[in-house]
Each structure stands twice: as C-alpha cells, then as structure tokens.
C-alpha cells in the first residue's frame, strides 16, 4: 500500500508546507514515522511536483485497517525470543506443523534486547500451535483465541478428574 492509497483529497492540500510532503508512491510503512514527527499530524502527498492530497492520522488508520483482513476464525499469539533465534520461516514451520494457516506476523524489539513477535493464525483454538511454538524453543507470552479459554478449562477439569480417579 502506498501514500496515494491512504490520502484524503480536497481539504487544505495547498496549505501543507513543502518540507512535510511525501511522494505518492512512498510505502505506508515509511509514511507512518514521518506523520508521527509532523507537528500538526498531516503530510502532503505530491505527484509530479503538485500536492494532490493530505494524509492525516485518520486516513492513515483507515488505510492500515484496510490492510488487515478481519477474520473471526483467527487466534493471536505473542511470543518472545532472542534476536539471534528469530526466524520468520522457522516460526511459520512451527505454525504449519499444526495444520494452521499463518495469517499475519509482526515483529518488534522488546525489553531486555529480545524480539516480540505477534502472530495471527487461522485457528479458533490455538493450543496445538502454542505447544508447537514452545517445542521450537519460543516463549509464548500471551494467547487470544475464541475457544482458547474453554480448552484450558476443559484441560483443568480433566486433570481434576484424573486426580480423583487416582485416589
């Protein structure tokens, strides 16, 4: 997605100062830091030396929202690892080992010099995927899934039943 895909047209484009303009072909990931540094939260979008639109925080948020497909059948898993252990392909293998589909993967630096990786996997119950990631050596720090709480509760009840049967 490019700057021209998220710009708002019409209002006040001629009043944007020249030092706060971006090219219409600039990728959105490069637009975001410039927009955050802009004092008024606006950037002009230039095409052939003419300002053709404006990017503000609302238009950027709407554009990023269009990039992320809404899915009700996905779970979100966040893991941490050392930067040397980070490998998107290895993480994808761990997900695919559980016959789940990796929808999105975002990585950012975390505290203590570690990497924080957030995954969206196409699976209502991410338990198997969590176990696979842990087998691959990743530390899972949070999990959100539609059925995940139910499966944890079922596992606890099963352990309680096993304990009662062993008495």
Which terms would index this structure?
167 residues; 4-stranded antiparallel beta sheet; 3-stranded mixed beta sheet; elongated
**What is the chain-wise order of helices and strands?**
HEHEEHEHEEHEH
- Rough shape? elongated
Number of helices: 6
Percent helix: 25-40%
- Major sheet size, sense and barrel closure: 4 strands, antiparallel
Number of strands: 7
The share of residues in extended strands comes to 25-35%
On the 0 to 100 scale, the average pLDDT is 84
- Main sheet strand line-up: 5-6-4-7
Structural class from helices and strands?
alpha+beta
Low-pLDDT stretches are: none
Query: Rg from C-alpha positions?
Result: 22 Å
Question: What is the straight-line distance between the termini?
Answer: 62 Å
Summarize the structure.
The protein has 167 residues and is of the alpha+beta class. Helix content is 37%, strand content 28%.
Can you describe this structure?
The protein is α+β, with helices and mostly antiparallel strands and 167 residues long. 37% of the residues lie in helices and 28% in strands. The chain is built from six helices and seven strands, in the order H-E-H-E-E-H-E-H-E-E-H-E-H. It has helices at 3-6, 28-37, 57-67, 88-96, 127-135, 148-165, and strands at 21-23, 42-47, 50-56, 75-81, 101-109, 115-122, 139-144. The strands form two sheets. A four-stranded antiparallel beta sheet has the order 5-6-4-7, covered by helices on one side. Strands 1-2-3 form a three-stranded mixed beta sheet. It is elongated, with a radius of gyration of 22 Å. The relative contact order is 0.13. The mean pLDDT is 84.
């Amino acid at each position: 997605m490019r700057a021209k895909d998220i710009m708002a047209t019409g209002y006040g484009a001629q009043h944007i100062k020249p030092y706060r303009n971006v090219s219409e072909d600039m990728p959105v990931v490069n637009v975001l830091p410039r927009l955050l540094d802009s004092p008024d939260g606006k950037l002009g979008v230039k095409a052939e030396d003419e300002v053709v639109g404006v990017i503000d925080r609302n238009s950027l948020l709407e554009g990023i929202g269009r990039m992320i497909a809404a899915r009700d059948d996905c779970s979100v898993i966040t893991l941490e690892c050392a930067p040397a252990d980070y490998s998107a392909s290895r993480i994808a293998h761990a997900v695919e080992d559980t016959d789940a589909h990796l929808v999105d993967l975002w990585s950012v630096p975390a505290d203590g010099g570690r990497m924080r990786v957030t995954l969206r996997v196409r699976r209502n119950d991410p338990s198997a995927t969590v176990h696979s990631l842990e087998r691959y050596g990743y530390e899972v720090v949070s999990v959100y899934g539609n059925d995940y709480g139910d499966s944890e509760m079922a596992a606890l009840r099963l352990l309680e039943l096993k304990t009662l049967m062993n008495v």
